[in-house]
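Input (structure):
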């Protein structure tokens, strides 16, 4: 299943299949960076395949109900097993809660699987009876899935600690890699080519002098949107010129979605335009970035983007969020489901613009230093080659292609994809 170049002797081009869910499109920069480092990359997800095809990435679509609690999903397991048989990768990388469980069950050791735990999912995001009942099931399935996992990557410290504490990894090795990385150059180019802030304000119906508090998130209860709406009312009573811009999907979120009527009760100081693909430009409008999640996140990409834009951040002290924001240093951490605390910290930043700029600058430095795409992909590159070396009967290393630098990054010599 491994291709060997005619001129490269024993040097091989490993084929990686990356499997994710509906948000897999956000990992396209990560996938392209993997390809630049000498991997042949295929992808599979549950969302629209056109963005992958435009990026010249082979894409397969499969289906599962992300709102269902039947974690076994026999039909999805069979579909994934057939998909892998057809694609014939050397290694499978999975992201998101259900793919992380379904793929090991589908393959059962036939192909090495590297899983990335990018958050603990819905089961650990609330304390209802249903959630509490499902947690032992989740843990049991994780222990079993670990039997067919070559390595598990964690995006934040707390998730890794949880898996270690409850023995969910078995003999499977674990590594901590913060997030999927952010393409700093692409982010800056998107901001440079965006319409002016004045034009965006007019398009969105925001006043020219309004103070903007921006949130980018799925508009669901687990993401803390009801708490944010209550905080918005408190903030706007103190500062009537403030406006809250809530960017993200709602209609696709099933039973977890915040109702349209609930949003409309907070008009005109809350504007919810839906999902948009110009987040770098929208960050230019904002004075504060608020992320009130109640969800156990991996490393929220939106916090990295807000930090790179130099915005001060108010978020909850949830796993993943506290890997990006240090309380009182580059933002504020508040308890989840506490609109008063959220509003108070937003008001602090709106009143102290000089302090807010200092915090935003520290966030930019942190993102550039710790979450740059090239650094993150370099660590995955090294991990994949270790896993593939262990999986080969002769123990041979899977080496970088000719033209690679010392870190394995391919210098494009012909302008073509690897």
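Output (sequence):
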């Amino acid at each position: 299943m491994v291709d060997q170049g005619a001129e490269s002797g024993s040097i091989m081009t490993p084929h990686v299949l990356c499997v994710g869910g509906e948000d897999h499109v956000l990992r396209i920069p990560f996938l392209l960076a993997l390809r630049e480092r000498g991997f042949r990359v295929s992808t599979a997800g549950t969302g629209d395949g056109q963005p992958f095809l435009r990026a010249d990435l082979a894409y397969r679509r499969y289906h599962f109900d992300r709102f269902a609690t039947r974690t076994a999903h026999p039909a999805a397991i069979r579909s994934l097993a057939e998909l892998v048989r057809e694609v014939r990768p050397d290694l499978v990388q999975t992201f998101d809660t259900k793919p992380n469980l379904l793929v090991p069950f589908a393959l059962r050791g036939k192909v090495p699987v590297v899983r990335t735990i990018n958050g603990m999912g819905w089961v650990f995001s609330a304390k209802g009876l249903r959630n509490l009942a499902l947690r032992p099931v989740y843990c049991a399935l994780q222990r079993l899935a670990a039997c067919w996992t070559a390595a598990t990557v964690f995006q934040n410290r707390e998730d890794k600690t949880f898996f270690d504490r409850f023995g969910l990894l078995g003999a499977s090795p674990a590594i901590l890699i913060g997030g999927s990385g952010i393409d700093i150059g692409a982010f800056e180019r998107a901001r440079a080519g965006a319409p002016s802030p004045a034009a965006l304000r007019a398009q969105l119906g925001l006043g020219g002098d309004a103070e903007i508090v921006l949130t980018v998130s799925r508009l669901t209860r687990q993401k803390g949107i009801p708490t944010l709406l209550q905080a918005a009312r408190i903030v706007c009573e103190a500062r009537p010129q403030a406006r809250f811009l809530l960017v993200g999907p709602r209609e696709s979120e099933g039973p977890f979605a915040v109702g349209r009527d609930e949003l409309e009760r907070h008009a005109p100081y809350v504007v919810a335009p839906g999902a948009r693909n110009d987040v770098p430009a929208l960050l230019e409008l904002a004075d504060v970035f608020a992320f009130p999640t109640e969800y156990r996140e991996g490393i929220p990409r939106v916090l990295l983007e807000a930090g790179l834009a130099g915005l001060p951040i108010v978020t909850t002290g949830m796993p993943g969020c506290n890997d990006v924001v240090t309380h009182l240093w580059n933002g504020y951490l508040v308890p989840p489901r506490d609109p008063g605390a959220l509003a108070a910290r937003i008001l602090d930043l709106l009143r102290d613009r000089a302090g807010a700029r200092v915090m935003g600058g520290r966030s930019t430095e942190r993102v550039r230093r710790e979450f740059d795409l090239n650094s993150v992909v370099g660590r995955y590159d090294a991990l994949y080659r270790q896993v593939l070396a262990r999986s080969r009967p002769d123990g041979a290393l899977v080496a970088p292609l000719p033209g690679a630098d010392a870190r394995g990054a391919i210098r494009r010599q012909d302008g073509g994809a690897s």
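Notes: The chain has 16 helices and 15 strands. Residues 3-181+372-391 form a domain with the Rossmann fold fold (CATH 3.40.50.2000).
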